Amino acid sequence: MSPLAKELFNLLQSGELYSGEALAQRFDVTRQAVWKAINELKVGHLVETIGRQGYKAFYPYIPLDQKNILAQLPKHCVDDVITSMDVTSTNEEIAKLPLNKALVMVSEMQTQGRGRNGKVWVSPLARNLYFSMRIQFKMQALANLTSFSPALGIYLVEYLQSKNIPAKIKWPNDIWVDGAKLAGILIETSAKSEHEVEMVIGIGLNNLPLAEANLTQNRATSIYEILGQAFDRNILVADIIQLISKLRDDYESFNFPNIVELWNQNSALHGQKVKLFSPAREIIGTEVGIADNGALLIQQDNGTVQQYFSGELSLRAYA
Ligand code: BTN
Prior knowledge:
This protein is α+β, with helices and mostly antiparallel strands. It contains 9 helices and 14 strands.
């Protein structure tokens, strides 16, 4: 992103209307240069043109602010929080950096945001939260990490509920509100050495509407659509870091959350007829919970209950 586009990004955050003329004067550039920079922001779906009057942000937003986030965190909680304007994918970029204890990266946009199962995660400028945290565990924790992903999903759901959002979890860890997706989690785990396992936790949470049209078609929702106003993402980032840090400490000290019970309270599809599918197969049954290893439990019509692990599987309500 060009330096002028970044300046405009900071200026337009309040949602005020600025004419091309005023912007050109303010930054001492030509109207043409303003127009070019505005178009960079438009690629991120941030700015609208109001007839001949000028430009304004679709929705007011608060830019990500590293100092603000760090000020909310206890000391030594993370090595660093990196805030960026645009990256390919925060999950991808954070994996390349040196790590001591825990590292966090958030970006205003992603050009190649990644979802689960090889899907694209649409990541327009300033609208949403694109968050990655990289942590490590001692190798002894590995056997228990299969349940970390649903556990984190449940914790995030409970956190959102505490903010008056009626969030529910859909296996393995989609966050839903009234049948529409609010957030998704992509966890990538790798063995770092004989003694250590590393995890990159990527969270995408829709803060502002993804687009002005087709909202109901893509079955996505956002904090704005649910509460009538967006969150300050800086607070969200600090809260999520603390939530993950606590969960990591709990797993390291073998103090696991009771995910079986928490799942039943928070699952969007609990007790409902569901279809679980992958490119190769399809299973229809009733979602009856998860096991303490994090596997989904599906009861088939003959009464047998089978466990399924995430892999390539997707789950849907069965109409
Ligand atoms: C899903 O498909 O539900 C998971 C979506 C995860 C998206 C987040 S956004 C921040 C991080 N960086 C990525 O490229 N993906 C994750």
